[in-house]
Write a structure and sequence with these properties.
This is VOC family protein. It contains three helices and eight strands, in the order βαβββαβαβββ. It is globular. It has a four-stranded mixed beta sheet. Strands 5-8-7-6 form a four-stranded mixed beta sheet. The protein is 26% helix and 41% strand. It has 132 residues and is α/β, with parallel strands linked by helices.
Length: 132
Amino acid sequence: MKVKVIGIPVLDQEKALQFYTNKLGFIKKHDIPLGENNRWLTVVSKDEPDGVEVLLEPSPNHFEPSKTYQSALFEAGIPYTQFNVDNLQDEFNRLINLGVEFTMQPTAMGNVKIAILNDTCGNKIQLIEMLS
């Protein structure tokens, strides 16, 4: 068994695609129309194009419990998921220069350093650097 796709609920798939590709640096993998302006829309790391796909799901717009859960996590400041980076300070600086809003600056916590950003689509995302 292995992970191939993880889903992130987004309020606007096109806005999410622009953020995840133009700001975070992912590349579009699949974009398949599903009807009613919904898409099977995935992005992947440009460093691992055959790696785990991130599905930008429109579920909050179609399933109220999903919207409630997403909103509650966001309001509590809890990240929906996390992405690993090699150098958090460099990535933080790059993203700040692109106008990305962070709710937590890079902070060391034991053997990791983390920061939390707003993906503009209803989620907080944690970036993490493993420290040696």
